[in-house]
Design brief:
The complex is a heterodimer of chains A (about 525) and B (about 350). By secondary structure, chain A is of the alpha/beta class. Helix content of chain A is about 35%, strand content about 25%. In chain A, a hairpin with a 2-residue loop joins β4 and β5 (about 75). The chains are: A alpha/beta (about 525), B mainly alpha (about 350).
Chain lengths: ~525, ~350
Amino acid sequence: MSQAETSELNPIGLSIRNGSKIYPGTQALKNVDFDLRMGAVNVLVGENGAGKSTLMKIIAGVEQLNGGTIELDSKPIVFADKSDAARHGVGIVFQELNLFPNLTVAENIFVGHERTRGGIHIDRQAQAATARTLMKRLEQDIDPDVTLGSLRIGQQQIVEIAKALAEDARILILDEPTSALSAAEVEVLFRVINDLKKQGVGIVYISHRLEELIRIGDYITVLRDGVITGSRTMKGVDIPWIVANMIGSASKEFPKTVDHNLGDEVFRVEGICLPSPAGGYAVDHMSLSVRAGEIVGLYGLMGAGRSELLECIMAQHPNSSGQLFVSGKPLREKSVAGRIRRGLALIPEDRKRDGLVQIMTIRENLTLSSLHDFTRGFHLSLRSEAAKAAEFVKRMAIKIASLEHPVSSLSGGNQQKVVIGKALMTKPKILLMDEPSRGIDIGAKAEIFRTMRRLAADGLGILFVTSDLEEVLALSDRILVMANGRLTGQFPAGANASDVISAATPNLNRVETT
Amino acid sequence: MSSIDASGNVKTVIGGSRSRTSALLMLLHMRTFVALILVFAFFAFAAPNFLTTGNMLIISKHVALNALLAIGMTFVIIAGGIDLSVGSIVGLCAMVAGYLVLYGIDLNFLGFGYSIQFNTIEICLIVLVAGIFIGWINGLLITKLNVAPFIATLGTLYVARGAALLFSDGRTFPNLAGNADYGSNTFRIIGSGTFLGLPVSVWIMVVVALAAAYLATRTPLGRHIYAVGGNERGAALSGVRVDRIKLFVYMFSGLCAALVGLIISSQLQASHPATGETFELNAIAAAVLGGTSMSGGRGRIGGTIVGAFVIGILADGLIMMGVSSFWQTVIKGLVIIAAVVVDQIQQKLQARVVLQQNVN
C-alpha cells in the first residue's frame, strides 16, 4: 500500500509540527511531528517518561506547547484548556481513573456536562437512558443508577470510556485503557474501537502491551526521551522493530555490573497471596529469593501486583498469607517495626506519601527508623543523632544546606537519598525498592543506581521493582517478571528485551523459566 | 556541597536557622511570647492592682488549670488528633474524687457491711487512673474501631459528662474536708496549699510542663508523636507503632484532665458535676495560640504554656478593667484568629527563606 492511498483513506485530522514541551528541569518533548489520522487507530508507544502522556495531554488541551504548532483540519489552533479541546471534539480517557466513587454511573458519565431542563434541573431520566444505551453499546450489564464505587476496577474503566463516548468525540485518546480490563472486556473494547473507526473517529491508543498494539493499530508512532524515533503504518511492524525503536542503541549511563561473588540466600518468600477486593488475587502465590550481594529486578506492567507484593512483605496487608525467611530463619513478626528489626527495609514508591514526613527536618527523617540506636533509657541523645545523620548525608552525598531544613525543601533526587539513607541506617540485610528512580532527574538516577551497585557489592541483597525496561535489563543480576499477580518469567542478566516484555504481557502463554 | 556542622545543628530548628532569617521572621517565631509581653505590659498600665503579688498568684492558679489541659491537648493535636472530652473528664474525675473523699467505696451491697476508705495519695491515684482509662477508651475507639477523633471524643464528652451527673444525681458533693482518721484530710493541699510561696497547682503545672517538654524533644516517643502527625503512613512504614502512639497521647491527655479535676475539687472543697464545661475549647485555643498546627506534626510545649498565659492574662486583666464579659469573648476569639493568620504568614515566609538558602 502506498503512502498516497492511505492518505486518501485516512485523512489527517490533527497534526503537530515542531512541538516542544519543557517542564522545569526536563524537556518532555523535542521538536515532535505527529499526524493523527481519522478513521484509524493511531498507536503510540514508548517507555515510561518517553513523553507519550505529555503529547496526549497537549492534544487534549490539558497542557500547552512551549514551541511548535497544532493544526486541526488544516487550520492552526490553540486549545485553551481541556473543555476547549472537548468543544472541538477531542475526548480523552486518562490512565488514572478520573471518577467519583460516591456518585452513580450515570452521574459520572455526565459530570461537567449534565443534561438539564431549563439549565437547573438535572434530567435524571434522560441521563440514565443515555447511559443505558452506552452500556449496551459497550456490551456491559451495568446499572446506571448504582454508585460507581461498588463496581470492579475493570467496570469503572468501562464507565470512563463511556464518559468519553458520551461527548461524541471526533478524536478519542485512550491512555492504557486495557491495563485493568479482563480479556473478555478487552475484546468488547476492540469491537467498540472498530465501530468508532468506521464512523470516522480518529483514535489514539497508548499501551505497553505490544501484541495488542500490533493487533489493533493502523499507524504506529514510537517515542523515546521526547523524540519520535519511528512513525509508519502498522503493516510489517513486529515486536523487535518496536523494541529497537523504544530502547535505541545509545544506552543511558548505567553502572556496569561489578563482578563480585554472590553470597548465600538472605531472603526468601514462599506462596505470598493477597486477595484482591475485585475478586481473585492481587498477589497470587508469589515465591522468590534473593542472595546476599544480588540485585534482583522485578519487572511488570502497571497493576501486575509488584507494589502489593512489597507491601505484603512489609506487613501492610494483614489479610495476606505466605511465609518469609531471612537468612533461612522464618520471619513471623507482624509489625513493620519488627520486620525492620529483622533486617528488612522498604523504599516506597510514593516518596511524598509513604517515604518522608515532609514537615520534619532532614535529620529527623534520616533517623526516624533508628531512633533507639541513640537512646539510653528514655533519653534520646540529640548529639549522637545529629552526628549519625551528618555521617549519612556525607555517605549518600546528599546535597543540603543544613540538616535542620525541612526535607520538603530538597529536590526529588536528594529526597530519595534521604529515604534510602533512613533505610540503610537500620542496617538492613535486604533492601526492597519500589520504583527507586521515579520522579528524579537523570543525574540523580545514575547516582541512585551507582549507590545500589555499591550496596550490593557490600553484600546487601536488593529486590527492586521497576516499570522501566532498560533499567531492569541494565541493573539486575537476575530479572523476575510479574503479571496478574503471578511470576511469569525469570531471566538471567543480559536477557533479551522482547522476551521480558512478552513475559510481562498477560493473556499470553507462560514463558518458560530459565 | 555545603558543609554540615553537626554540633551546631544539635539545637532546635529555630535555633539553627535563626542567624540567617530576617528580623521579621524571628519576630514571627517569637510572636506568642511577644504577644504575652504586650498583653502583660498593657494591663500593667491599664489595670490597677494588676502587678500585685496576690493578683499574679491568682492569675497563675487560673492559668495552671488551662495549661495542664493544653499540654495534653498539644500532644493529641501534634499526633494529628483532637480531644474534645477533656472538659468532661475534668468533671467526672472531680466527682470521683469528691465521692471517694466523702464515702470511700461502699461495699454494703455485697453484704460485707462496711466500706473502704482511702487516704489522699490513694484517692489521687484512683482518680488519675480513671482519667487515663477514659483516655484509653478514646484511643481504642480511634485506633481499633477507626472512629474519627472528633467523633470519638465528642461521644466520650457526652458519656463522661452524663456519668458525672449520674454520680450524684446532679447534686454537688460538698465539704470535701476529708477525715483525719483515714488520712484524707490532706486532700485540700492539692488545690489550696503552697510550696516555696507558689500554689501547689502551679508546681504541678511546672512539673508536668517540664516532663512534657522533655518527652517531646528528647525521647523517641516524642519524635514518633511528631512523625505520626506529620505523615501517618510514612511513620508506619518507618517502623513507628502508630496505634501505640495514638493510645499514648489520648491517655496522657486523660491524665492531664484528671489532674485538673483533682485540683478543682480540692480548691473548692466541693465537686460539682458541671465542672470543666467548655474547658476543652480553652485548651485547644491555648495550643493553637502557642503555634500548634491543627493539621498535625507541629507544635511545642513551651509555646502552649505561653499561649495559656496569654489567654489567662487577657481574661483576668479584662475583668479587672471592668470590660464586659461579652466583649471579653469577642476579644478572645479575635486573638485566636489573629494567631492563626500570623502563623500562616510565617509558614510562607519561612518556606521562601529556606528555598533561597537551598538555591545559594
